[in-house]
Write a structure and sequence with these properties.
Elements lengths: L1 H17 L11 H25 L3 H31 L11 H4 L1 H19 L4 H14 L2 H4 L2 H4 L5 H10 L2 H10 L5 H21 L2 H10 L2
Helix pairs in contact: 1-2, 2-3, 3-5, 5-6, 5-11, 6-11
Length: about 220
């Protein structure tokens, strides 16, 4: 799953960020640079933490976990700031036809679900079966930004196809549960349902008058 996440991020952001020189990449504002660095650090931490467990370095994994949760808290703050910055720049995906105020619900909902899953992972940090699944699902939910760039980096596709790609990435978790536990773990069920619901309900919710008023206020 770590490899799948890394490949997805590379496919989405290689042209505009990683292969563009990272620091030298032409991003629209400083907060987007900060956002990119912090979210990249999360991916690196995910790989290291997975490797530590594989190497039976559980004590070191737990120590580094404190850094991971601090990093996640920074991601929530910076993610909301980056989303708000995009709103104020009038940004929405090319060809989507979405008003920037409507699209604003996409980064906000994604980072809030990430926060909820990471918070749950912290509570379940002494229950490895649940903890590791929650961290993976938290990492999956923020992949919509990378997948959303697939039309520019891989092939043209609509938002429904992009949603289905992300949903398809949930399936290996279900298969893994069935293979190792002979059942689907409750974390997998709850996390998968939450992600699917958010993917398909957030745009309709973003078109409501209540959300538009909130986005107008945040957009200044």
């Amino acid at each position: 799953m770590c490899l799948l996440i890394l490949v997805t991020v590379w496919l989405g952001f290689s042209k505009t960020y990683y292969a563009a020189g990272i620091v030298r990449a032409h991003l629209p504002s400083p907060i987007i640079h900060v956002h990119a660095v912090i979210f990249s650090l999360w991916l690196l931490t995910l790989v290291v933490q997975t490797g530590l467990i594989g190497a039976k370095k559980v004590h070191l994994h737990r120590k580094l976990g404190l850094w991971g949760f601090f990093l996640a808290a920074c991601m929530v703050v910076v993610g909301l700031m980056a989303g708000t910055n995009a709103l104020r720049r009038g940004m929405s995906p090319p060809g989507s036809g979405l008003d920037p105020k409507v699209f604003y619900i996409v980064p906000v909902s994604g980072i809030l679900v990430f926060a909820a899953l990471v918070g749950w992972a912290y509570i379940a940090r002494r229950r490895p079966v649940e903890h590791k699944r929650l961290i993976i699902f938290a990492s999956l939910v923020i992949l919509d930004a990378a997948i959303g760039r697939f039309p520019n980096t891989i092939t043209p596709m609509g938002p429904i196809t992009q949603n289905l790609i992300l949903i398809g990435m949930l399936l290996p978790m279900i298969v893994y549960d069935l293979a190792t536990l002979k059942r689907v773990n409750r974390v997998t069920i709850v996390s998968s349902l939450l992600i699917v619901l958010v993917l398909f309900l957030r745009i309709p919710l973003g078109m409501t008058s209540l959300w538009l008023k909130f986005a107008t206020f945040m957009g200044g």
